[in-house]
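Subject: Sanity check before I submit

Could someone independently write out the structure tokens for this chain? I want to compare against mine line by line before I put it in a report. The sequence has 187 residues.
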Amino acid sequence: MRHAHGIQHAVLGVVSRNPEGIHGYAVRRQGERLLGHFWQLNFGEVYRILDRLAADGLIEQVAEGTESARKLYRITARGQHSLDDYVLSPQTDLPRPLRQELAVKLLFASPEHLPELLRLVARQRDSYMQELHTLGSERRRMRRAPFDAFVTHLLIDGAELAARAELAWLDEVAKRLAERYGVAGTA
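---
Independent answer below. Compare away.
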């Protein structure tokens, strides 16, 4: 959720689900609730995006009531049209090539550093195992959510599949390094 238009439209989507109006704090809370582990915006970013959406005419400030000093926003017709266009347009983010620090280390390491490389592979593997644990916790939390978390479950599925693919790759790296340099029992 790092693509600028994706983030802007995620905030716009949260606003669209609140026709009576919503303030920035609630936008962040609802975004975290809906997207869980995948929502990584701080309050400053949320308020900057809300200001930008308002300046672009995609949301408007609801008439201030006496209940709260917080600004409430709701989506405009132009904002709903923008959100609909975004939802129905083809994705613009392409699959990312493998760009890992570990790949550079493997490329330039000499064979005598094999034990250290294997420890780095194991450490990287531990990181992905921790990520799987975190995703499992998130999945359990979403099962108890008082709202439909269908899309969040799909995101968790995708993140788990990606982590498992990385683990399989790391296992293959360790195996092939051991085979190439004649180290037994490291896979």
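---
OP: Matches mine. For the report I'm noting this point. The first strand starts at residue 59 and ends at 61.
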